[in-house]
Amino acid sequence: MEINKDIIQGARIRLDRIHGLVEELGQYQLIEQQKDDLGIDTKSSKMDLVTRVDKESERVISTWIMENYPGDGILGEEGTKHNPEAYYQWVVDPVDGTNNYAQRFPIFGISVGIKYKKVGVGGIVHIPALKEWFVGVKGEGATLNGKPIRVGDKTELIHSLACTGFPYDKGTNPRNNLREISAMVPKVRGMRRTGCAAFDLCCVACGRFDIFWEMTLKEWDIAAACVILEEAGAVWKIYQEEREISIVAGNSTLVQKLMPILTDSTL
Ligand code: IPD
Ligand code: CA
Ligand code: CA
């Protein structure tokens, strides 16, 4: 499918227009996070949380999209599914890193991706506590707070800072990333887990992390960040078809080195 300049311009305008709302929501999330009662509930497991702010943030974003782009579609983590046949689709994670949010740990963010006929054409990941804005528009590059970003250029795992995450069913499903992390820890310089996959992927895009992998991610975790990665010269690949979205990201050399480890059936 050819993504022409009008489609790209449509994505850029949409991201520019929603920027102010995302900024306001980020401030709201920081203020609400200091309150005594965060309205915490569980979803798929006792490890998978949702707060009042997740639901309210998604309501605010989807209301804005429906008012401003009534013909567009929306897929939101907290249940919004609107116009699934529309060409432009907004893919929204209103709070990525809810476990962090609920613990008052500051690494959480808002992720808004835009797809056109299923192709990622734009994305914003905003981390309010860090005042960081990662933005990518297809063919126009990726930025962090307005400055161009680039994936790291390391070529050896042993020089790399790696990052990963664990699925919410890690207590019951044996495919829970423990074997992969055991294989990786001895091979890399350092290993991190931030608890906010959109941020992790953006940290790969700007060279803070050299590689990242995680299984069981969802569309809303990766939609915005994948455009940012591509525009920063990084590659991302799906390393297995099971366990929902299993993604690995980094520069092409490191991704090539990581793939056989993640897909090693003897693990
Ligand atoms: C989660 C975070 C976390 C990742 C989980 C995601 P949520 O998103 O991105 O880092 O390990 O797999 O589901 O639930 O906080 O939006
Ligand atoms: Ca998420
Ligand atoms: Ca979320």
Overall description:
- This protein is globular.
- It has 267 residues and is α+β, with helices and mostly antiparallel strands.
- Helix 1 (5-33) runs antiparallel to helix 2 (52-68) and helix 5 (197-205) packs parallel to helix 6 (219-231).
- Strand 6 and strand 7 (119-127) form a beta hairpin.
- The mean pLDDT is 96.
- Helices cover 34% and strands 28% of the residues.
- It has 2 domains: 5-148, Fructose-1,6-Bisphosphatase, subunit A, domain 1 (Fructose-1,6-Bisphosphatase, Chain A, domain 1, 2-Layer Sandwich); 157-262, 3-Layer(aba) Sandwich (D-Maltodextrin-Binding Protein, domain 2).
- It has 7 helices and 15 strands.
- The chain has helices at 5-33, 52-68, 98-102, 178-184, 197-205, 219-231, 252-262; strands spanning 41-42, 49-50, 73-76, 81-82, 88-96, 109-116, 119-127, 132-137, 141-144, 147-148, 161-164, 190-192, 211-217, 235-240, 245-250.
- The relative contact order is 0.14.
- The strands form 3 sheets. It has an 8-stranded mixed sheet with strand order 4-3-5-6-7-8-9-10, sandwiched between helices.
- It binds D-MYO-inositol-1-phosphate (IPD) and calcium ion (CA) (2 copies).
- One calcium ion (CA) binds at residues 93, 96, 197, 220-221.
- D-MYO-inositol-1-phosphate (IPD) binds at residues 77, 93, 96-99, 165, 195-197, 214, 216-217, 221.
Name some characteristics of this structure.
single chain; 267 residues; alpha+beta; D-Maltodextrin-Binding Protein, domain 2; five-stranded mixed β-sheet; globular; binds D-MYO-inositol-1-phosphate; binds calcium ion
